[in-house]
Design goal:
alpha/beta, globular, 4-stranded antiparallel sheet, 18 strands, single chain, TIM Barrel
Length: 301
Amino acid sequence: MTIQFLGKTLKNHMVLASGVLGNSKEILERVHENGCGLVTMKSIGPAPRDGHKNPTVIDLGQGMINAVGLPSPGYLNMENEWQDLDERDFPLIASVYGGSVKEYQVVAEFVSAKKPDFIEINISCPNSEKHGMIFGINRQSSQDVVSAVKEVINVPLIVKLTPQAPDIGDIAKACEDAGADAICAINTVGPGMVIDIESAMPVLAFKKGGLSGPMIKPIAVRCVFDIYKAVNIPIIGLGGITTGEDAIEIIMAGASLVGIGSAVRYRGIDVFQKVTDEMNAWLSNRNLSIEDIKGAAHKEK
């Protein structure tokens, strides 16, 4: 099931989502060895950031709610990690974020020089220059950050979108027009809140958090479906994918690759191989290939 993705050969269609595991070569290598075709680092920010206080993650049964808060050592404090990763033998996405267009640009330019295979920008962050408005819900602010980053990097650019966008297809098209090479969708859904009724207090220390896991899969599938109609660049479909059948579904919506995050918690680090095997079995039983089913949900009946 090897696949060509933006000029790189991947061993399969599985992608580790950003923020699930750390940035050490050892853990990312282990993910790759357990069946993941493309691994994403934890997001790298412009300055050291501790993230939110515990509790930050709550399991809700059909998914999770989290407010981790994008903890990062800051892009200037990762030399040991980069030195180790320089000797990697697996394809790597470096994820970056910022609070302004300039911060995205500065961090992405620095990270690009470390030679990841791809850079992903998470535009679900608030824009400090626009009174905290989320970059990815506005067409112009999305274009501004994508074009600024594209100017200063020399690797393909993936843009990770938020389902909060009122028209995610339009945002994806704006990113494509600004130079994005691929789209990743979706980030967490929300924010949501869980209250402990005995203490009458929100369970998360930050009170509000993003939803992930199986309960958000229908939203992810719809978003990928809308994006596929709007753009001509590849899509990494992400959000609630836990089984091979889930992966088939989001590929039918239009995804080229399949991202996995919360399912690492539910099914173990070898979930990538399990999902790949389940996909293969489903396809084999029907004498189909990935290309046969990609975007199949868009065909007129």
